């Protein structure tokens, strides 16, 4: 699916002043941030699980658990969002991509934030908070400026998750400065990102599935039912608010459990209409389905925990959404962007299935380590090892695409039988777009 075609449908075209292929003109933003995000994902789990005592000699401003949560939610997630949004927004708005110098400044700002939080810069708590939050604030400012300058009201939702992350990160550092663990701030960040994944998934998963089925000559998906989609997304958002406040609901916990379970059912019905079983031979598509399924699975677990008063279930949902939902969806998008915006056909490279399954098993192992205490000791390192293996796998399989020049469709080779070669800029549809064209690419 081409950003260029989506931009033309919205009445704008990405600027072309270089004469270079689209992947070269619009491909710079995702490269450093996807590489940095994948390296960050490996480092956070590796250091937390094995080497954090060495880092602790630097007297970092956060303890191991708080540092682990902070760097996944406020380090890894914003890096992937930066790669995605800074690549997508020029196509949505028709404005220039971010120039090299501002892009480099954002990358440096992200790196400085990571060093500050790890204690390498020797800053005090308030300085660490300012430096660590500066990247997310700057990214939100850049994206907001582009959207406002283009008067693209329909894309304004792109900054909402960033705004939630900024607020959550400020609350996190305020809690840390006052001696608290920042649990509410972490929950707020997780709820905000899960909401983004749920809404984004509601657009891209059926769109990519529909296009894949058309291009491979398979039976089409059922027509969408807008009332069902709206009800599922709306109740899902409300259920996230309920989940956010669930630790303080007390006697209202059973009612909250019902809301969470109903939201789960509606989201499952919505996703069942996206024909997930017809995509099992293409990891680029079924990985998106698997990532999207983590949201209702989390609601089922949270709802059961609320109804049964089971604290272990309530804790498990955090890892289902953080590892399964965020991990799967971000990796699925990173692999697709890495292919499409370097001019390659949108077909998974060898090893992609292992990458996706490693993340899924990591989520199961981490959630299971809390649900089955007798298995906690073996499951915790297993979850960490699988997470690291998935991101090392991404760096090995897709990392070379992020450091090599993009290719033209002629150089990338012929597409598989029955599949048209994609344009260089294959990622997702414009937020204004409600329908998928048979000429679009998955």
UniProtKB/TrEMBL annotation:
Residues 1-24, 410-442 are annotated as: Disordered. Keywords: Membrane, Transmembrane, Transmembrane helix. Residues 7-22, 414-426 have a biased composition (Low complexity). InterPro entries: NnrS. It holds the Pfam family NnrS. The chain crosses the membrane at residues 33-55, 67-86, 98-117, 123-143, 155-176, 188-208, 228-246, 252-272, 284-307, 313-333, 354-376, 382-403. It comes from the Bacteria. This is NnrS family protein.
């Amino acid at each position: 699916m081409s950003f260029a075609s989506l931009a033309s449908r919205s009445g704008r075209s990405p600027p072309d002043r270089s004469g270079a292929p689209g992947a070269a003109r619009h491909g710079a933003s995702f490269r450093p941030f996807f590489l940095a995000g994948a390296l960050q994902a490996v480092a956070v789990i590796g250091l937390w699980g094995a080497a954090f005592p060495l880092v602790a000699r630097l007297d970092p401003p956060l303890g191991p658990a708080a540092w682990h949560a902070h760097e996944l939610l406020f380090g890894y997630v914003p890096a992937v969002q930066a790669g995605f949004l800074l690549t997508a927004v020029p196509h949505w708005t028709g404005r220039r991509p971010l120039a090299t110098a501002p892009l480099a400044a954002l990358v440096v700002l992200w790196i400085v934030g990571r060093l500050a939080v790890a204690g390498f810069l020797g800053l005090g708590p308030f300085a660490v908070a300012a430096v660590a939050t500066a990247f997310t604030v700057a990214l939100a400012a850049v994206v907001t400026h582009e959207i406002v300058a283009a008067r693209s009201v329909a894309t304004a939702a792109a900054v909402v998750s960033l705004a939630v992350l900024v607020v959550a990160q400020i609350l996190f550092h305020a809690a840390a400065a006052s001696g608290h663990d920042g649990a509410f701030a972490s929950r707020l960040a997780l709820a905000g990102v899960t909401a983004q994944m749920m809404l984004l998934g509601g657009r891209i998963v059926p769109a990519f599935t529909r296009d894949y089925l058309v291009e491979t000559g398979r039976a089409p998906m059922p027509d969408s039912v807008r009332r069902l989609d709206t009800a599922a997304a709306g109740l899902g958002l409300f259920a996230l608010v309920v989940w956010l406040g669930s630790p303080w609901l007390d006697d209202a916990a059973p009612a909250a459990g019902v809301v969470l379970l109903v939201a789960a059912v509606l989201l499952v019905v919505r996703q069942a209409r996206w024909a997930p079983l017809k995509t099992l031979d293409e990891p680029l598509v079924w990985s998106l389905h698997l990532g999207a399924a983590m949201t209702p699975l989390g609601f089922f677990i949270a709802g059961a925990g609320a109804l049964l008063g089971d604290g272990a279930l309530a804790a498990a949902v955090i890892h289902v959404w953080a590892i399964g939902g965020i991990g799967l969806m971000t990796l699925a998008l990173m692999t697709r962007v890495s292919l499409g915006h370097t001019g390659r056909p949108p077909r998974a490279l060898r090893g992609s299935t292992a990458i996706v399954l490693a993340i899924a098993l990591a989520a199961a192992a981490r959630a299971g380590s809390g649900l089955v205490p007798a298995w906690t000791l073996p499951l915790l390192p297993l979850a960490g090892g699988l997470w690291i293996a998935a991101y090392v796998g991404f760096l090995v399989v897709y990392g070379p695409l992020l450091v090599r020049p993009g290719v033209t469709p002629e150089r990338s080779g012929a597409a598989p039988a029955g599949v048209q070669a994609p344009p260089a800029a294959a990622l997702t549809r414009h937020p204004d777009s409600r329908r998928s064209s048979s000429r679009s690419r998955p």
